[in-house]
Give the backbone structure.
Amino acid sequence: MSNTVVFDGSPLAIEDIVALAEQRANAKLDRADAYREFIEQGPRFLDRLLAEDGEIYGVTTGYGDSCTTAIPPELVNELPRHLYTFHGCGQGRMLAPDQARAVVATRLTSLALGQSGVSWALLEQLETLLGHDIMPLIPEEGSVGASGDLTPLSYVAAVLCGEREVWYQGQQRDTAEVFAECGIQPLTLRPKEGLAIMNGTAVMTALACQAFKRAEYLAEMATRITAMASVALKGNAFHFDERLFAVKPHPGQQQVAARLRADLHSGEPPRNSSRLQDRYSLRCAPHVIGVLQDSLPWLRTFIENELNSANDNPIIDGDGEHVLHGGHFYGGHIAFAMDGLKTAVANIADLLDRQMAQLMDVRFNNGLPANLSGATGPRAAINHGLKAVQIGTSAWTAEALKQTMPASVFSRSTECHNQDKVSMGTIAARDCLRVLQLTEQVTAAALIATGQGLELRVRQGDIGEGGLPAALQQTLMRTRDYSEFINEDRALDKELTALVNVVQQRHWVLYPEPADG
């Protein structure tokens, strides 16, 4: 990916937003004269309408249910500031800086389409925030996901104007002070610009972009862990046979099975397998992980279509000179995508939790010590291996599964019944991020457990030197960089946290893309 993401109205990918959020790319507006002229024709059209006493929602009228309230001409210019001011009622935790970057980049993507009636100066101010890494402090609670992410995006609008607070150089700072230090002039919003910034789906869509990349990586990580668990449990690799999966042609499921075959170097059924059929958490792993893998293409379509849409109201067609009133702020597609994604991800947590339960239990683990303890001799009596980690894994999995109740079905009529059907898309996205966090914790525990199981097999002589497939050996060694073999009981919280960070940052390349040709 290029280290510069250009905003010129062309479609962007999920990866572009995530790269900007993670500071692996810079944002740059296209400064071609033709593009700037295209952007400016929207606000020029609005200026003409105002001069001709045209009625424009949110410009010469109040907002929402107040759309029947006429705004006196001398007060029109004050209306945008009132919009972001009275919406300054967000609660909850602040979005992290990377999440705020994703939000700013996502809003810039939509406004750069030139269908919202905003000025070139506004686009430049958003570019400036990204360039200086001055990120609005955005409370995560307060959006119902229709009429846009009004309350959280009010914090973006206020910061553009030099108000409220920002993240800057690792600290929470007053926006006006940071702007003064950096020589940035606060923006004065033109008519319609407050509505253009706030009346859209940027928060839910930004979080969805980040959720997608984390989930995509979890599908790969769960596949690799399944391969490790299969070897540690003396599983039957023939469960992933190509001929078997040819007769159930879900492409993502087939891809997971193919990755498992490659990881395990499997061909014919192993002669030393103790079971003809493994338990479902091994045998059906491609079917569980495959649901997530097969969902990724349509999830990408939903998210990227929303990302590259003009999703405020009204739409301003500066070229054709139309004001188009509608409901593009409605976040139903993101709500559905995030409700579906969190269910698929929670099932990954459940799968890994069940594999871990098998590894711990001497009734099911085919000769491994109880709780995967590495202690031997008299000291084995006082050591407990991964007993507590398995309890924690069960707790994280239960919470992830509990979070799968769809948010989108909890529409609440609000704002004097003007917003009488809403998407709850932002809540769905936040729920999905919580499920991802919990599942990433389960994944970290499963890395430690399967690594411990593999090393115990080697020490027991069940796997000869060089007998571990190369991909599994590599993952085991990478895990050992953060968590050593457990001979004696020790606190594992810091090791788990370190591995959660590895998973979230997608550091390890597990399944490289095949080279072209």
Observations:
- Residues 208-315+325-505 form a domain with the Fumarase C; Chain A, domain 2 fold (CATH 1.20.200.10).
- The first helix runs from residue 14 to 21.
- The first strand starts at residue 4 and ends at 7.
